[in-house]
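User: Sequence for Oxidoreductase below. Tokens please.
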Amino acid sequence: MAEQPERVQVAIVGSGPAGLSAAAHAAAKGMSHVLIEKTDHLSDTIFKYQKGKHVMATPSNLVLRSDLDFEAGKREAILETWDRQIEEGKVNVLFEAEVTAITGESGDFTIEIKGKEPIRAEYVVLAIGTQGNPNLLRIPGADLPLVQYQLDDPGEYYDEHITVIGSGDAGIENALGLAADAAQANIVTILNRRDSFARAMGANVKLLEEAEADGRIIVRRETEPAELRMGENGGELVLNTRDGEETIRCDRVIARTGSKPPRDFVEAIGVNFTSEERDAFPALTPSFETTKNGVHVIGALAGYPLIKHCMNQGYDVIEFLSGNTELKPADQPILEEKFAGLPGNHPVEYWLDLFGRNIVIFEELSPLQLRELMLDSTVHSHAPGEVVFTRNEPGSSMFCIAQGSVLVEVDPDDPSVTVPIEEGSIFGEVGLISGRRRGSTIRAAEQLVTVELSRNAALKLIATVPSAGRAVNRISIERQFLQMFGSGLTREDVAGIVEQGEVVDVRAGQKIVEEGADDKDIYVIRRGSMIVEKEIGGHPVFLSYLPAGSYFGEMAVIDGSKRTATVKAAIKSEVIRFPGEAFTAVLDKNAKLRGRLLEDMKNRREVNAFVEARKDSFGSAADMYSETAQFLVDNGIGEATDVLLIDETLCVACDNCEKACADSHDGLSRLDREAGRSYAHLHVPTSCRHCEHPHCMADCPPNAIQRGPDGEVFIDDTCIGCGNCQRNCPYGVIRMDAKPPKKPGLLRWLFFGSGPGPGEASYAWRKAHTDPAKPKQAIKCDMCAGIEGGPACVRACPTGAAIRVSPDKFLTVTKLTEEVE
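Assistant: Structure tokens for Oxidoreductase:
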């Protein structure tokens, strides 16, 4: 818009929301400036958004500071407003100017521009973002022409099978755009390697869930791409799912897997990053200055991707450069109110500094990132002895100890038996990972200040800040190791092996150790479950089942033998791998632990000896048992904590189980006896498995699905009937139903016919409530929690055909001995 200047007070590189806001404010203040943009248009990031995209203006409670207007609306309208206001504000923009290097010192920088004369500037503001550096797919076939990293106009694509890889806002918005017009007839699938959308804004997640419910988008959770290839009928995408490999048709891949900072370019200027991680951000002061004096970083490159945040930073950085050192960030009033209840009447800056220094998972967060995190967090102050939370209380948030320490009551019968957790550490991570109720009561050991991260905020932090993810992993590994192997071990005893522990994702069916192999690692099952098999007569024979929290591999480590059995994942799982040498070092220092493991080894060797001694007599009985075990794993027992099985040789089809279930639950049975699958004499009816890591808990907006003290997964009265749980359950055990009327007293029902009585709700009532537009609630088995005597279905069975068991008790070699003896 103007001729290229030779020298300016401030040079702003990049015309995204942050750079535009900075340049507009510099112009308004009369500062000599230049806005350098390598393309021929403003705000390339927004410009590249898909056509018609609705741009959000979040967070809604944050005041906008900028000379430019910004409200939620269509991409085109926002760009038009900014183009007009930049021209009206006489902002000096240099288009088609690619910066190749920045040299010099504060007060006299030289900005080299490809094909143009250099520009000298007193200060440099980098607002270059990260969008030009997308994270590339790292799978076989990623170089095929089917893959693209940008979606300009979703309306250009018709009648294609399109897979979107990436579960952040960009991926969700691309998937929604491709599925917006039914006339396009696209089959759109989006992949999410986790079970929740921690990286995305809540509004986008809600829209995606609605599209999924309507059948417009296929959402694949706990799924990763494994290979892209050309088949006979076109493209094929091989997926690693929670149940194993699967291949789907794929005409096009839209990869929205994030981006990384242009590190080489920034470091060449003299700017240091917070760590060596590829996703780390530059180290910044509260005034956005880098380790290179005079060079400031704002916007997405500073770790702030939200537009409103970026625009505020652009305004603020110019204020700082013009001498306004008293300016407070726009979120200051929000944080002041949030921190008002903390002791000492300290300012916001005091607490932010303390949180950043004391809390281990915040160590590599910039002041800007920490402020943003605090907007989604809650702070607490507790007096000595005060309870933070109690055993069996629902909750999936994670707590960080900023000041003080806590005591964990590890014995439910004796509150005096406690374990301390020190300042700077975390607690509540078990509920975060598993969704289970609180496992212990925790009290303040002294004056205590904590930061409570909601589940979404914690998962987003772990996913986007590598150092935080490492710290949470290390702490959870340490605690799981001590819990499992105990025997008087202390944190100091296991520090060496914990540092070497590695969390490994395992796909369903993948072998972790193989019979006859000579490796020496030991494994702890963090999530999921394993099957132990031994080869007999040329085919695998099922030995046992290992649920989450079990360990395996210790026999080869202790006595140096080869692997005596094969261990493979029953479902998609996570294991922690510990080097055998490090585990041996721990054993050498703890005779009690060695003795315990030797006893466990003795039992396992007895099982192996039994199998070997009878290998000639197994025959078809062994085959039948192994096939039965695999059938049960395929039908959910591999991730169950409690499963209903029916022995069809004893079942007389009286349906007492269903009737008893209905009587116990307002006339609505949670059990369908006839549905489900059978193998041999075993039937797995349609009833909740109460999974170790429930799929139904993912994406429950009101957090209505909880886990009870006995492991039962239940849905409370806050259910809003959205149906997410029903869609997420792979076993079809949840249904949406109208909430039945309150049951009348026996006499009113008997003499006046008021409302539904014993058993199912009345036919008339059900017929009146089949309107799909009427509010529904999700219902499922809750194991008759709170009902004396336990599950009604089992109590009501006259023949003993119905049993509820945990898989580790059912799938054991004991059953095998019964079959073959």
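The first strand starts at residue 7 and ends at 13.
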